[in-house]
C-alpha cells in the first residue's frame, strides 16, 4: 500500500506500560492478589483487536530452605477493574513463574498475544501474584513488576 499526501492514516494507540520496583517481602497469599501498589494500565484496543503483552519482574525465595514459587499473571477487564473480566489470572496461559531455589532475585518475563479484543474498546489490565508455599513459608519476595501492552496492526 502506498500512502500519499492527503491520505487518511489510522494510527495505533500508544504503548501502555508500568514498571514498579517496590519490594514486596514475605509474600504469603496463596490466591491471586494485586499487591501494593497495584500495577495496571488502561489501553484502547486497536483496529486489529490484537495486542502484545509482556508480564515480568524480579523474584526470589530468601528462606533457609528455598521452595516457594511466585506466580505473576495478568488479569484483563473491559472498561475498568470494576468492569467485566475478560481474562482471568493464569500463570500457564500468559504468566511468569519463579524458580523455587533462587535465593537471589531472578528477573524474567513472558510475552504473549491477546486477540479478539473489541476494536476501540477501553480495557484495563493488571498484574496479580500468588505464592506456592514450600517447607519454609512466607519467604518469597518480589523486587519489581513490569507490564507492557503494545497495540498490533
Topology:
Elements: E1 16-20, E2 24-27, E3 40-44, E4 51-61, E5 69-78, E6 85-87, E7 96-97, E8 106-114, E9 122-132, E10 140-151
Antiparallel strand pairs: 1-10, 2-10, 3-9, 4-8, 4-10, 5-6, 5-7, 5-9
Question: Using DSSP, what is the number of strands?
Answer: 10
Shape: elongated
The biggest beta sheet is recorded as: 5 strands, antiparallel
**N- to C-terminal separation?**
14 Å
Percentage of residues in strands: over 45%
Q: Please identify the structural class as seen in this structure.
A: mainly beta
Uncertain regions spanning at least 5 consecutive residues:
none
Order of helices and strands: EEEEEEEEEE
Percent in helix: under 10%
Helical stretch count?
A: 0
Oligomer class? single chain
Key terms for this structure?
single chain; 153 residues; mainly beta; five-stranded antiparallel beta sheet; 10 strands; elongated
Describe this structure in words.
This protein has 153 residues and is an all-beta fold. It has strands at 16-20, 24-27, 40-44, 51-61, 69-78, 85-87, 96-97, 106-114, 122-132, 140-151. The strands form 2 sheets. Strands 1, 2, 4, 8 and 10 form a 5-stranded antiparallel β-sheet that branches. It is elongated, with a radius of gyration of 18 Å. The two termini are 14 Å apart. The model has no long low-confidence stretch (mean pLDDT 89).
Question: How is this structure best summarized?
Answer:
0% of the residues lie in helices and 47% in strands.
